[in-house]
Design brief:
- The protein is an alpha/beta fold.
- The protein folds into 2 domains: about 1-235 and about 535-555, Rossmann fold; about 270-445 and about 525-530, no CATH class.
- It is built from 13 helices and 15 strands.
- It has helices spanning about 15-30, 35-40, 55-70, 75-100, 120-125, 155-165, 180-200, 215-220, 255-265, 295-315, 380-385, 405-420, 540-555; strands at about 1-10, 100-110, 170-175, 210, 280-285, 325-330, 335, 345, 375, 390-395, 445, 455, 460, 495-500, 525-530.
- Strand 3 (about 170-175), helix 7 and strand 4 form a beta-alpha-beta unit.
- Helix 3 (about 55-70) crosses helix 12 and helix 9 packs across helix 10.
């Protein structure tokens, strides 16, 4: 019997208070060195205020908007279970030929259903000496509906697989579209720890192979000092340097996976624009700082992007190679006026679009960002394509294979603020299937979470979040409200961007006012759209099954 684990990122199905609390608790459960793990996670006095810390307020406002905009729960889990069924069916079709039986389960870095966390009782805890098991179900006066205080006091996927007789476990990972990533490493390491406990002292654990990292690069490259290092301790004192060469990720270089993305990109071509006049942006999120010491996510993502580009050029030869580019989100920047902050002097900034998901350091090259056509920030990529004369742009986010609010709402707003909401391919007719209330994904301004009250001296007023400035003379963008020697608050109005009709790129307020009716100055004059992820295409399940079958054949 071979156990198969389909590893995913996961998250809340809807943005409820319970879902937000659970996913935040699960996130912090992986880092035993963090202050949250050691002091707060299992402290009942903290639970009522748990989501008030860090970027909790920002995330809450963002996700509430996003889920409201799509009209309800995310389609993510429904699609994920369809992918899992396709995987099971593909494996079942090969079972007799291989002479093995397969049993498939789910492991999720963040789990809407705690049973899919790699080891739910690590979240239940307590993991700190003075802590209590995590049983929070909301304020006693207004408890969360249908909340089980023992929801994390359950078995995870390892006991389930072992109970069914699994003698080997193969993990296939789509946490970030197939690329290796520290989050999946969290999952794999936790699963292996659970297997060791099941084996008992001196016992031989059931082997677990991660098919995206068949050479166990991330395990072998993990920093060795200080003992028990995690990223919250800062850069490691001693690293294990393991060459990336010879330990590839076969998933991200798969032409079959690339083809699924290429077809999703082509589905969003503008039929009135030639392929030669079409540009494509392959966007990705990056690393958490210091993970580059063992995490090849950026290298894997570039391989994925390059493989998609090759497949696009094979399938649609009129496309121009130079107009298929890679891009990353914005990064935190160093504020040298800050002293002794948990973020080490880094904060969000307006030039980096108020973002913190763009630390794209290459494997074992701290701080070294990709260069050339695979190293743009997404606004740079869009500006390059605008200046190069493209008439239609498709934006893809291949680090996901499943529809969610990320590609349905968040990325469209990031793109819309740069090149405009009226440039969106579906602006005229709207899309009321995906956005049932208003027919589009766009907020008035992005981020939707920023404070809208500004002050200058003793004067308080509504911040201006309109490109070109407000008619009564209030300036845009709003001035920084956080003192310069303090870390800029995530909700600082200076991090808010208007989502204008034709975008920020190519517009200079010194040259006149923007228009809601036509592009002015050098604003983008074409159209744009988001690609369609592979979603429930059964070929994705067949692709994952192919890697599993090859691993079984190689192991026998």
């Amino acid at each position: 019997m071979i156990g198969v684990l389909f590893v995913i990122h996961g998250g809340s199905e809807d943005w409820t208070d319970r879902g937000a609390f659970d996913t935040a608790a699960q996130l912090f459960s992986y880092d035993h060195n963090s202050a949250v793990y050691q002091r707060f996670l299992w402290d009942p006095r903290i639970w009522p205020r748990f989501m008030d810390f860090g970027n909790g307020p920002k995330e809450g406002l963002k996700y509430r908007f996003e889920y409201e905009r799509i009209g309800g729960p995310s389609p993510f889990y429904g699609i994920t279970y369809a992918q899992m069924r396709s995987l099971e069916e593909a494996l079942e079709s090969r079972s007799q030929e291989l002479g093995v039986r397969f049993v498939v389960d789910l492991a999720s870095w963040m789990a809407a259903d705690p049973k899919n966390h790699p080891w739910p009782r690590l979240v239940y805890g307590p993991g700190s000496e003075q802590g209590q098991p995590l049983t929070w179900c909301g304020p006693p006066e207004t408890p969360w509906q249908d909340c089980d205080p023992e929801r994390h006091n359950v078995d995870g996927p390892i006991p389930r697989l072992l109970e069914q007789g699994a003698t080997e476990i193969l993990a296939i990972d789509m946490t970030v579209g197939g690329a290796r990533f520290s989050k999946t490493h969290d999952v794999i390491r936790t699963l292996r720890r659970r297997l060791a406990v099941e084996a008992g002292e001196g016992g031989e654990p059931v082997p677990l192979r991660w098919l995206n990292d068949p050479g166990d690069l991330m395990r072998d490259s993990y920093p060795k000092e200080p003992a028990g290092w995690t990223r919250s301790l800062g850069p490691p004192a001693a690293d294990r340097s393991v060459p990336l060469a010879g330990r590839p990720n076969p998933v991200v270089s798969s032409p079959r996976l690339a083809m699924l993305h290429a077809e999703g990109i082509a589905e969003r071509f503008n039929p009135e624009v030639s392929e030669a006049d079409t540009g494509i942006v392959l966007l990705g999120h990056a690393l958490r700082r210091y993970d580059e010491y063992f995490d090849p996510k950026i290298n894997d993502t570039i391989t994925l992007h390059q493989t998609i580009a090759l497949e696009l050029l094979r399938m649609y030869p009129e496309l121009k190679e130079r107009r298929i580019v890679g891009a990353w989100a914005g990064d935190m920047v160093l504020n040298e006026a800050l002293t002794d902050t948990p973020a080490g002097g880094y904060e969000r900034s307006r030039p980096m679009r108020g973002e913190n998901l763009g630390y794209a350091a290459l494997y074992e090259q701290p701080g070294v960002h990709p260069q050339g056509k695979w190293g743009y920030r997404y606004w740079e990529a869009l500006d390059f394509l605008r200046a190069d004369g493209v008439k239609h742009i498709v934006v893809a986010f291949p680090q996901i294979v499943t529809e969610s609010v990320l590609n349905m709402v968040e990325v469209p707003n990031q793109i819309g603020k740069e090149v405009g909401y009226r440039s969106w391919l579906y602006y005229e007719q709207g899309d009321f299937t995906r956005y049932p209330q208003v027919g589009h994904p766009f907020a008035d301004y992005w981020g939707i979470w920023v404070d809208t009250q500004c002050s200058a001296g003793d004067r308080k007023f509504e911040c201006c979040l309109e490109l070109g400035g407000c008619s009564d003379g209030r300036a845009y963008p709003p001035a920084r409200q956080t003192p310069p020697d303090r870390r800029r608050n995530d909700l600082d109005p200076s991090l808010g961007y208007d989502v204008p009709a034709y975008g920020h790129i190519g517009y200079d307020p010194a040259l006149g006012s923007p228009s809601d009716n036509r592009p002015v100055q050098q604003q983008y004059r074409g159209t744009w759209a988001m690609w369609r992820p592979p979603n429930d295409d059964p070929r994705l399940g067949e692709l994952m099954a192919r890697f599993i079958v090859e691993a079984v054949q190689a192991g026998h």
